[in-house]
Amino acid sequence: MRQRLLLFFTICILLAVVTFGIVKKLTYTDLARQENYLAQLQVAELTEGIAEQECSVMSQSLPDSAIILRVEVTGEIEHLFQVDRQRAVIQEVYTGNGLEAGEEIYVFSRHWQLVIDGNPNAIERGFVNIMEVGTEYLIFAEAVSEDMETGMVSIKLYDDFYITPVFCYDDRQNKIMPISGDTTYVSYKDVMDNEFFVTSEKTLQIMETLKSQMLSLYPGNISN
């Protein structure tokens, strides 16, 4: 009898989790179908103190990542349950067993997700913007898996830091929006062309120094 009750409760919990995930996924999908839905969202900017601490360690740790790739982004952002992803094609494998140039992959991060709870509604990015389709990026990742629906290879980014380790091979102009109160969230529509989301020029310099260091180690095509 006890085993039956335990099985019953286990099934109920599993069904509740699955139902919650489906409802959330539908919420994300419905929002993404709205025109200019990103303009309705907030995004967090990175502070100088966190940038100094994180970038110092990242400059030493990122070259030891299990997977280091140059990719060209081929797909717009996709919102799943508690994670966002984008399609890309590998252009060059610097590090990564079993991966090959020309292979189509998904790129995702635990830092990438929509938070639809009204407090505020936000797009979480690890302080790095959505990757632009047709543009090349240097990414540092830690794990490979297979997407259950498509069978495509999925690459999980190296997520030990607050900052997502993704760097655009192009130069970007970054707009800094002032913050107020205890929050660093700003309207995404005001910074949607940025590469990085930061609170100050000093913070931007720290981020761009890290980017320059990584791109010098993995320069990609000379024509870029």
Description:
With 224 residues, the protein is α+β, with helices and mostly antiparallel strands. The chain has 2 domains: 1-33; 37-217, Beta Barrel (OB fold (Dihydrolipoamide Acetyltransferase, E2P)). It contains 3 helices and 11 strands, in the order αβαββββββββββα. It has a 5-stranded mixed barrel with strand order 2-4-5-9-8. The protein has a two-stranded antiparallel sheet with strand order 1-11. Strands 6-7 form a two-stranded antiparallel ribbon. Strand 6 and strand 7 form a beta hairpin.
Feature tags:
11 strands; two-stranded antiparallel ribbon; single chain; 224 residues; alpha+beta; OB fold (Dihydrolipoamide Acetyltransferase, E2P); five-stranded mixed β-barrel; 2 domains
Q: What is the CATH topology classification name of the largest domain?
A: OB fold (Dihydrolipoamide Acetyltransferase, E2P)
Mean pLDDT: 87
* CATH hierarchy, class of the largest domain: Mainly Beta
Cα separation of the termini: 68 Å
Question: In terms of structural class, how would the helical and strand content be classed?
Answer: alpha+beta
Under the CATH scheme, the architecture of the largest domain is Beta Barrel
What's the SSE pattern? HEHEEEEEEEEEEH
Helix tally equals: 3
Helix content: 25-40%
Which sheet architecture does the biggest sheet show?
A: 5 strands, mixed, barrel
Cα-atom radius of gyration: 19 Å
Name the poorly predicted regions: 10-29
State the strand order across the main sheet: 2-4-5-9-8
